[in-house]
């Protein structure tokens, strides 16, 4: 738990927009304008964050689109783009994605409607405790989370072995 909390705390310091740390931009705005934005009862700019873990090397403004192969199962290209509101789920995505490149995590913005991911909601867990989503519309990359901590090697290996057993038993089907 402490490991996950440390990863969540440190990711804000690692976020950058146009090369400027987000925390620095926030402090400058407060010093210049006395506030970030007028207080309101409505949801704020950071009311919901979305993350995508992958091995792809992307830049702010790039988009993640449907039609790519799954990082987790062999087969036809997917007709959805998958993402989460938890950094931990994005870490799993980055660590388990296909390829030999380093894992990467991006803060993303949906450009269209989003839906609960049925692969992890209701089918496996009641509701959506993993905060996992999907969309048929592109996700726009806002920033890269550069200072995240992966799972312990033995935890990662156990997950890979579990996925391999699932694939061998024919249970690695993605509801697309």
Structural features, described:
The strands form three sheets. Strands 3-6-9-4 form a four-stranded antiparallel sheet. It has a three-stranded antiparallel sheet with strand order 5-8-7. The protein has one domain (2-34, 56-168): Alpha-Beta Barrel (ADP-ribosylation fold). The two termini are 32 Å apart. By secondary structure, it is an alpha+beta fold. The protein is 29% helix and 20% strand. The chain has helices at 2-14, 22-33, 87-96, 153-168; strands spanning 16-17, 20-21, 50-54, 63-64, 81-84, 104-110, 115-116, 132-135, 139-145. It is built from four helices and nine strands, in the order αββαβββαββββα.
Labels describing this entry:
single chain; 176 residues; alpha+beta; ADP-ribosylation fold; four-stranded antiparallel beta sheet; three-stranded antiparallel beta sheet; disordered N terminus
At CATH level 3, the topology is ADP-ribosylation fold
Low-confidence stretches: 1-13
**Which CATH class is shown?**
Alpha Beta
Q: List the helices and strands in order.
A: HEEHEEEHEEEEH
Radius of gyration from the CA trace?
17 Å
What is the global morphology?
A: globular
Number of domains: 1
Strand order of the largest sheet: 3-6-9-4
- The CA-CA distance between the termini, in Å, is 32 Å
- Second rung of CATH, namely the architecture: Alpha-Beta Barrel
Instruction: Indicate the proportion of strand residues.
Output: 15-25%
By secondary-structure content and strand pairing, the structural class works out as alpha+beta
- Please state the average pLDDT score: 77
* Biggest beta sheet attributes: 4 strands, antiparallel
């Amino acid at each position: 738990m402490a490991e996950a909390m440390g990863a969540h705390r440190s990711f804000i310091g690692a976020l950058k927009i146009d090369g400027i740390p987000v925390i620095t931009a926030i402090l400058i705005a407060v010093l210049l304008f006395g506030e970030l934005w007028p207080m309101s009862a409505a949801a704020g700019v950071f009311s919901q964050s979305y993350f995508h873990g992958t091995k792809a090397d992307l830049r702010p403004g790039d988009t993640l689109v449907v039609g790519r192969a799954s990082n987790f199962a062999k087969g036809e290209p997917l007709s959805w783009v998958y993402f989460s509101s938890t950094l931990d789920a994005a870490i799993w995505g980055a660590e388990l994605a296909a390829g030999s490149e380093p894992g990467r995590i991006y803060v993303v913005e949906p450009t269209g409607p989003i839906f609960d991911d049925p692969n992890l909601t209701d089918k496996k867990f009641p509701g959506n405790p993993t905060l996992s989503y999907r969309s048929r519309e592109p996700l726009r990359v806002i920033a890269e989370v550069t200072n995240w901590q992966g799972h312990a090697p033995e935890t990662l290996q156990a997950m890979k072995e579990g996925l391999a057993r699932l694939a061998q038993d024919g249970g690695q089907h993605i509801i697309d």
